[in-house]
Amino acid sequence: MIDPILNQSPQLATEPPAYQPQFIQEEVLLYDLILRLQSGQYQYIEQNLYEANKLAVNEIRRETVQDAHEIHYINFFEFEVNQICNLGPQGLTLLQEWQEAMPESGYAHAIEAQYWFCWAYRYRSTDTIDKVSESMWLAAQACASRMYVAGLKALQLDPSLWIVPSTIIQSIGAFNEPEWLHQLILTGQLANSEIQYELPKKPAPLAELKTMLQDSGLDITQPLYCPTTRPAALISPLIDRKIIDDKEYWLHASLAIHPKQFQLFRRYINFLLPRWGGSHERIQALIASPLCQHLSDIERSRLEHEIWRDDFAGNYADTDSEPADFRQWLTKTKKQMNSALYPFHRQESAMWIVVSLINRDKMTEALPYAQIALEEEQIDDDDHIIALLNITFKHPEFIPSFVATIKHSALTRETIAARILYAFFCDQGLHGFQRNPTIAEQWFQDAMLAEPQNPIWGGLISTFTEAEDYQSAVLLAKKGYELSNDSATFQLAYLYEQGLGIRQDIECAIKLYQGLSHSYLQEACGNLYVLYRQQLITCRTDDERRTLERKTLDTIIKYEQFDGHNAIYALLRLCSILRTPEHIIEMLPRLQSEAAQGVPEAMAALAAIYGSKKKGHYNYHNGVLWLMACDPENALLEEVKQTVFENSFFGRIKLAWVQAGIEPHQLPGADNNMV
């Protein structure tokens, strides 16, 4: 597998060392909660959370872009409690022991509420809502019910826990507000405190649900009881002679406890976006409302930026974009960039322009905006780093500022791409980095542990390849392969296949493609098919061809299952050159069915099979029938016609003679039958 790297690239020329690379361990745990719980240091946890909450509530930060204490407090609930969730039932037991030891602790229940909120999202976790099974949804709903109950108990014990209604907003947005909670808030009391879980009626789904819930420790056979009165910390839903409910109520409830919040609005605005049934006008109305009067101009600008992000973030222009549309988008984004008061949003807008212009082959026009983006010392978007890396190859004057950005972004762990490039520069001693393979390995491992299958590895390698910096591409691809990253492995296979920066080795490329997991199987199948087709041309024996035909057929059929681009065409084209009888027999029913429906490639493949004496199904007249029935402009038809029917002078004479004796009504196929 390890071959010498060819074509030494000047891009990797060692520079005089000026920068001593360093590896700083990421600080994930704020209070090392698990260790404290295991050792029973409940008072320590309580005191630290009390102080953190106090700092967040009293924070004076209106004229700055920093809201460090509020974020610090929120991060505890979002990230450190997540470590407890990873323990599953064991983590739940730790929380229950805390509650038993300190029955008056509101935080013990608030953290349990976050525990269930985390698990609700895990059960519902999927790319799209239509892929959530009934059991997944019911498990998420059950966890959400536990979350609401734990949150209400926390507020009963500690009225200062504004974090609870803030989290409930997100839960209601994802899982809806249950009727019992709605009634408790509306009327202030409940007649019955027992909460009924929604359960499947059939035994099999019920058993599946119980098994699924074992991961979190939720036992749906045990009754769940909620408070029968609305906690005093929660305000009445009657505000300005109007009843408010759902997420709006919980927004007011959280602000009633902590009126100076900012992060709460960033979350709440997501539910006002059009995709959630809201509108940009509703967002603007909220920002202009008395609820946001305490916010600074910078914070209002940050909220307004979400409107631009809803339309443009990740939706870059490209060569398919209409010129008029692009001019309109560019004008709107320039306006947003110039008006943004928050530096990162100015950078984000500038980078949208950079990526879009590069996509439209206008890199020179993108350079001023790249310079604006690099004014900030760090970038937190992998795609933006790819775009800037692309610029450095053609405009090396950007390298110093780009490398400085990579240093800051890696040390603050803003992106995986920054960590990978930091490690790579350190490993090779590039761009002023003192070469240090030991520290480089720590950064490579850090990137892998954070996101093992992040596709940005492939994006970086592809960028080096397109810039013809093949040595860097191979080095990075091999490192990603060693770390079992699929995108890097795919790129390494391609480099072996093409012989770019490394000795060409088709067999090695095939092995790498074959070893890829599901996430890159579609692309791998497409490339494998091309390689197998090329090898079919050089087969020397029937046995060798039979084996390779089988591999090629299996690969293209699998590729078709992924809805691969032109997979059907490629499969039918392959059928036209099959020679092994059992393979032809296997595919004939499908070919006949699709040809009868008028698929031109299937017609051409049948013409090739019936028209050739080498395929075991020779019937020249039938072959000519399908040849004439097919669309005369079809590319595969022309290929079959030249290689099977008109490959000699006598072949052309014979074809013309047989065609002359066939009437139009004799032609097969659905369209021809209509004639």
UniProtKB/TrEMBL annotation:
A matching Pfam family: DUF4034
Residue intervals of the DUF4034 domain: 70-309
InterPro entries: DUF4034, TPR-like_helical_dom_sf
Domain of life (superkingdom): Bacteria
Protein name: DUF4034 domain-containing protein
Lineage of origin: Bacteria, Pseudomonadati, Pseudomonadota, Betaproteobacteria, Neisseriales
